[in-house]
Design a protein that fits this description.
452 residues; alpha/beta; TIM Barrel; two-stranded antiparallel ribbon; 20 helices
């Protein structure tokens, strides 16, 4: 886009951003965020920072959900917060989320991206947060915007071969995310649980000690005036179901170990799901069975005995629609949703078959080594197609409006259904009461300011 055009509708300088024409800013956002995402690395960073500062000046402010979750720890409000992972068509998808949120007066929802997704979708934290905030400006959304680092996980094999190296990698990712204004971080050191130990406390010790260390690190680098919301995890997703004894061993151990300010706001548990669902040989998904009574019991325990917002459910987006009402009924505080949205994009009748085939051909060529013995081609494609977003990102963004529009309508309908089933409709008021966003100004590079 012509940057001088932007310079006519905003005033930008060392002191910050002043919006002269909010409507005009929204109308140029499509072009500005596209140019930011696909510029060379140095200019890209500057433009992404500019987008974020524009968003804050327009009233869309990155925020921690800590205040709401502290309130949930005292009195459960009857809703479950959806945490939405967006792997592809991120700007359009985020716009669809904000449109539905404005329509339904929903304020309690999170955008998130996991450590693994940052890699294979080629969306570093700064890009992800800027794209989400650009979408908020485009749709006229004002208020706190919750952006989360999901599954900031210590990879077990990496940790065992080099504990300091793996820990420092995760610390580096945390620092990058907080600098990009992810004020919600989920630490997953459940991979370090040692089931060979004789007691639950000793089994969970590597988990709670590492969570304590990383939470302390977060508290040391978080901006003044912001308490980053930090989540822990006791059950590696896809493995055996969590128990109340494990929860107590972990949270008691964390409480005895952590001394650096506010502790955890929530706890991820395992109740029968797996990430992405289980795909059958014909490419259809196996039915998922969640142990909702375990989820209810663990949420109650986390809330009543430890003051947390409740338990968090992962791997739920491929559940049947008639199951989602159970999350607020069982007191679940947060549910993570990813693959279901990806499936809507890939399986939409509006996605050109030729483009879909192009992506699948790329996957079959580049990831042939991941094709496991005994796996059908449908199973292979289903398990790897999440990796079709990163390397082909520009081609996804370049799909014409006639393709993207109907897909976004499908997604928007899904977001509306989830907001309704999870009972977060009309949650703007409670978010406004419990969350007071703190605007942290970031310096826009001189090279970008000169373009305006």
């Amino acid at each position: 886009m012509e940057m001088k055009e932007l310079g006519n509708i905003i005033k930008a300088g060392k002191e910050g951003i002043e919006i002269r024409d909010r409507g005009a800013v929204a109308s140029v956002m499509d072009r500005l965020i596209y140019e930011a995402v696909f510029s060379d690395e140095e200019r890209k960073k500057g433009l992404l920072l500019l987008v974020k500062e524009i968003a804050k000046a327009c009233g869309a402010v990155p925020a921690s959900i800590q205040g709401l979750y502290e309130d949930m720890g005292k009195s459960y409000p009857g809703f479950t917060v959806p945490a939405i992972n967006i792997r592809g068509l991120t700007y359009d998808s985020a716009r669809a989320v904000f449109r539905k949120a404005l329509e339904t007066k929903t304020g309690a929802f999170i955008f998130e991206i996991a450590r693994s997704e940052i890699g294979y979708t080629k969306q570093r934290p700064l890009e992800y947060s800027a794209v989400v905030l650009a979408a908020a400006v485009r749709e006229g959304y004002q208020g706190p915007v919750f952006i989360q680092g999901d599954h900031f996980q210590l990879v077990r094999k990496n940790y065992l071969s080099g504990p300091d190296l793996e820990t420092n990698y995760v610390k580096g990712l945390i620092a990058e995310a907080i600098e990009a204004e992810f004020y919600n971080i989920d630490i997953d050191s459940s991979t370090l649980v040692d089931l060979e130990k004789p007691t639950l406390t000793e089994q969970q010790r590597p988990n709670f000690e590492k969570t304590s260390e990383l939470t302390g690190y977060i508290r040391g680098i978080q901006p003044k005036g912001i308490d980053v919301s930090v989540g822990g995890e006791i059950g590696e997703i896809g493995k055996k179901n969590s128990t109340s004894e494990e929860l107590k061993a972990y949270l008691d151990g964390f409480r005895d170990t952590f001394r650096a300010g506010k502790g955890l706001s929530k706890l991820s548990v395992q109740t029968g799901t797996s990430h992405g669902g289980v795909v059958l040989p014909d490419g259809t998904l196996a039915k998922v069975k969640i142990d909702f009574e375990t989820l209810r019991h663990l949420s109650d325990l986390a809330r009543k005995d430890y003051g947390l917002s409740g338990a968090v459910q992962h791997g739920a987006s491929t559940l049947p629609e008639d199951a989602f009402h159970m999350f607020p009924e069982t007191g679940t505080s947060e549910v993570h949703l990813a693959t279901g949205f990806q499936n809507i994009i890939y399986d939409s009748a509006s996605l050109p078959a030729g483009f879909r085939d192009e992506v699948y051909t790329y996957l079959k060529t580049e990831f042939a080594k991941e094709h496991k013995e005994g796996q059908t081609e449908e199973q292979f494609i289903y398990s790897t197609r999440k990796k079709g977003f990163g390397a082909m990102k520009k081609k996804w963004w370049d799909l014409n409006k006639e393709v993207r529009g109907p897909i976004m309508t499908e997604l928007e309908n899904k977001f509306g259904l989830l907001f309704d089933k999870l009972k977060v409709v009309n949650s703007m008021d409670i978010v406004k009461r419990t969350v007071k966003p703190e605007i942290i100004k970031k310096e826009i590079p001189e090279s970008v300011l000169k373009e305006l």
